[in-house]
Write a structure and sequence with these properties.
This protein has 438 residues and is of the alpha/beta class. It has three domains: 119 residues, Rossmann fold, CATH 3.40.50; 145 residues, 3-Layer(aba) Sandwich (Rossmann fold); 105 residues, Homeodomain-like (Arc Repressor Mutant, subunit A). Helices cover 43% and strands 13% of the residues. α3 links the parallel β3 and β4. α4 packs across α5 and α13 packs across α16. The longest helix is centred in the last third of the chain and has 19 residues. The radius of gyration is 23 Å and the shape is globular. The two termini are 38 Å apart.
Amino acid sequence: MSKIPKVLLLIESSRGSGRSLLRGIAHYAHHQGPWSFYWEPGGLEKVWPKLKTLDLDGIILRDVDKLEEVVAFGIPAVVIGHGRTEVSCLLNVVTDSERIGQMAAEHLLACGFKKFAYCGCRASKEENAPWSELRRQSFADRIRQAGWSCEDFSGPPSSSRLSWLRERGLMARWLQSLSKPLGLMAANDDRASQVVEACKVAGVSVPSEVGIIGVDNDEVVCGLSDPPLSSVSVNFDRAGYEAASALDCLMKGRGPVPARIVVHPTHIVIRRSTDVVAVEDKSVAKALRYIHGASCREELTVAVVARNAGVSRRLLEKRFRRELGCSVLGEIRRMHTEKMAQLLVETHLPVREIAETLGFGDVQHFARYFRSVKKMSPLAYRKAYAGYSAQQPRSQFGDSFTQTGVERHLPECYPLKHDFSNSLKILDEPKPVSALLV
């Protein structure tokens, strides 16, 4: 009987990102295992004294202070990036922070904001985290590309041991000093919730004066905020699955293994913190509210939007481009495809059923419409960005794990091709529309 691999997991579960990573790892083990797990959510410090005695075959862990000492053990390892730059001698899991910043900027621009700000991590070892800085740069670049500027709350220096109460006061004064209405991106959902609290101290209304978007779509953190937070959803579920797959290759001595695994954002989850139309032109504001509030099956054409805005189509187009830098049809298409993308990555509904739900007469029209904006087919988008649980229906027992033993084949929901020269990405291959019906 072959030996069951023993894998150490040093991943916290107090946040949605960690739980999603663990879920993805568990899915891989259920389908490709069995594996034996030793999970220590408290981190390396708690398990360090007995690390040598665990007889481990592999490790998946956050990038911690003693990482170099872990490497010295010679155990195959995958590092989940958090507070450090990538570790050259190990396989790294990193977020696509550049795309995350762009998506947040595009969402706030679509809300009509013309003033923008970014709030990075609080004063701690994470303040200068590479992912936070990359998100700031990408967000600011996209805002400047649109013709606007971006303010930045850098916080106290990393050496400062300032309490959150004192930092909140500094943040409140900074928020009071900014021109409004303001669109603000926070480095993650935790930081976004802190910005909401600072707004309350500053007497600043969210979202009418400041629209706030976070990152990770941690439903608990976003839901506890008042108002609930909009957030960029990131595919940690899939990243966990791919991290486990890569570790499996390392443990078996089979390759090739990618240099890094990139965790991609999938879509914006809009909640009340950005539920606002921040434009002065009343006809454009009315048109935006109509577009954003239209039901899935409601007829939505430029002529219909103009009629509801109370102006001619030509005048609305002119004002739209002046206020938002895009056409009315462009905004309609953007909203439609965001709804499509959300259903593709968050549900296991067949593509045909999603098309019907959104009012498309046939799946071929749906596929052409989606590809014209996202540059890939709906099925390829689902394979590339949906987590495992969104791609398979739940079992009769209410969970998404198999209940009849271990499946020895790779699930059909992960027919991946890897670009090993750069990073693990999904390569979209054009497919006939008929393939969507399978």
